Amino acid sequence: MIVVGLIAGVLAKWIMPGPDPGGIIVTILIGIAGAFVGGFIVQSLGGPGLTQIGVTSILVSTLGAVILLALYRLITRRTV
For the whole model, what pTM was predicted? Predict the structure, then answer.
């Protein structure tokens, strides 16, 4: 799960680059949380749950991590 989280977090940061705080630990945590979010979304749409490490798991985890990054940026957006 940590390996999938790391890959998903790195892919999400690559898709959505920006000045987000945190290093490799935060990237892994975002990826792991993204796996849960992405798995929940896919399962609620009638898809299979994430049970194995594979391309599908990484893509779903990356989707969840991108969603979490977008939400994080909306919440922490500074207005000038």
Answer: 0.78
Q: pLDDT band for 50, please (50, 70, 90 cuts).
A: low
Cα–Cα–Cα angle for 18, 23, 24, nearest 5°? 115
SS (H, E, C) the chain: CHHHHHHHHHHHHHHCCCCCCCCHHHHHHHHHHHHHHHHHHHHHCCCCCCCCCCHHHHHHHHHHHHHHHHHHHHHCCCCC
What is the residue type of 70? A
What single letter denotes the amino acid at residue 24? I
Give the start-to-end residue ranges of the domains of the chain: 2-75
- The tokens of 12 are what? 């999400």
Q: How many CB atoms are located within 10 Å of the residue 17 CB?
A: 8
